[in-house]
Amino acid sequence: MRSTKEMTTDLDAVIHAPLRLQICARLARAETVGFATMREWLDVSESVLSKHVKVLQAAGYLTVRKAASDHRQRTWLALSAAGRAAFAAHAAALRALVGEADLAAE
C-alpha cells in the first residue's frame, strides 16, 4: 500500500484548484466548449474564468481558439493531448487517495 504522501505527489497542482479541476472535467467530456458556455456552467465572471484558462494554457493543458461567428469574436476551449493525459493522471491519483480513505473507514 502506498503512503498518502506518495499519492498526493501524484496530484497535479495546476489542475487541483477547484475551478481548474472543474474546467478540465467538463472539457474531458467534450472536444471543445465555448468560453461563454464554460462561464455559465461554472457560474463565474469572465475575468475569473480567464485567469484559470491562462494558467491551464501556460501549462500546455488547454488550447484556446478564437474565431469570428455571427459577426462576433468567439473563444473556444479544448484540452490538449497533454491536458487530457494530465487530467487522467490527476483523476487516477484522486481515486487512489479516496479509495485509501474508504478502506480506512471500514
Structure in words:
The chain is α+β, with helices and mostly antiparallel strands and 106 residues long. It has a single domain, classed as Winged helix-like DNA-binding domain superfamily/Winged helix DNA-binding domain (Arc Repressor Mutant, subunit A, Orthogonal Bundle), CATH 1.10.10.10. It is built from 6 helices and 3 strands. The chain has a 3-stranded antiparallel beta sheet. A hairpin with a 2-residue loop joins strand 2 (62-69) and strand 3 (72-79). The radius of gyration is 16 Å and the shape is elongated.
Annotation, overall tally of beta strands: 3
Mean pLDDT over the residues: 89
What is the beta-strand fraction?
15-25%
Integer-rounded radius of gyration? 16 Å
**Straight-line distance between termini:** 16 Å
Structural class by SSE content: alpha+beta
Task: Give a topology summary.
Elements: H1 4-9, H2 13-16, H3 18-28, E1 33-34, H4 35-42, H5 46-58, E2 62-69, E3 72-79, H6 81-105
Antiparallel strand pairs: 1-3, 2-3
Give a quick rundown of the structure:
This protein has 106 residues and is an alpha+beta fold. The protein has a single domain (4-98), classed as Orthogonal Bundle (Arc Repressor Mutant, subunit A), CATH 1.10.10. 63% of the residues lie in helices and 17% in strands.
